[in-house]
Amino acid sequence: MKLLDYIEKTNLNEKNETERAKMVCFYAYKESSIASFTMSNIADLLIDCGYSKPNMSRLKLNLLKGKGKAFIISRQDKSKIEFIPAVFESLNKEYGALWCDTETVESSSELIDEVKFCGKREYLSKLIRQINSSYKNNCYDACAVLMRRLFEVMLVLSFQHHGIDGLIKDSSGNGYFMLEKIVSIAQNDPTLKLSRIKTKYDTFRQVGNFSAHSITYTAGAKDIDDIKIDYRAMLEELYY
Questions:
Q1: Domain range annotation of the chain
Q2: Which CATH code of 2.60.40, 1.10.10, 1.20.120, 1.10.287 fits the domain covering 114-238?
Q3: Is residue 75 packed enough to be buried (19+ CB in 10 Å), middle (13-18) or exposed (0-12)?
């Protein structure tokens, strides 16, 4: 977990110095398995978080004997302190789940502007964040496949918005045609009022197809960069 995320999620700025010291030691344990600390270690951790260097004698007294008592002298090294087991268990119960987060995707508009395109529909926001995160982490095949999926979703939503999604449904009336056929119908239907960007639709589809289905092909940054401006133009046009 990134330090700034930890500071925000634990409201560290709202806590007093003793609580902050306790919390940064917990972070150090979870991130680096550091189980015992000198006061210099703790001071450095607080400074890394952007806080002032503490009065170490006073802080040590508060951590060992004050109302915020959370540590004991280490049995292995008397120059260090370590968590009281019950205090650590309590911290782990309250904050340990932060390291088991299966929902948060770290992204920041690396490819698609999240300020502009996220927030309207949660499932679209999740796809956009995954696209940005995969691009940021050099996972270009994953990025291409997700971009293809988002493109397909946007087309279907456009047909639905105009009340003509029956044009792209299969004979059962429940499912939709394959993307290649949806693209062909979209390019030739006047109701959608598409601009010339529609001539790039097959490119979006093909880039995703190569990454999803080709045995030997692997996407690179240039494959994504070559289509990103047109892709954004497509989103601008289809996003409702």
A1: 3-100, 114-238
A2: 1.20.120
A3: exposed
Domain spanning 3-100, CATH class: mainly alpha
Q: Convert the pLDDT of each residue in 44-59 to its tens digit.
A: 999 999 999 999 999 9
Q: Kindly write down the DSSP assignment for every residue of 113-150, as one continuous string.
A: -HHHHSSS-HHHHHHHHHHHHHHHTT-HHHHHHHHHHH
pLDDT in tens, 129-188: 999 999 999 999 999 999 999 999 999 999 999 999 999 999 888 899 999 999 999 999
Pairing, β 36-37 against β 71-73? unpaired
User: Integer distance in angstroms from the first to the last C-alpha of the chain?
Assistant: 35
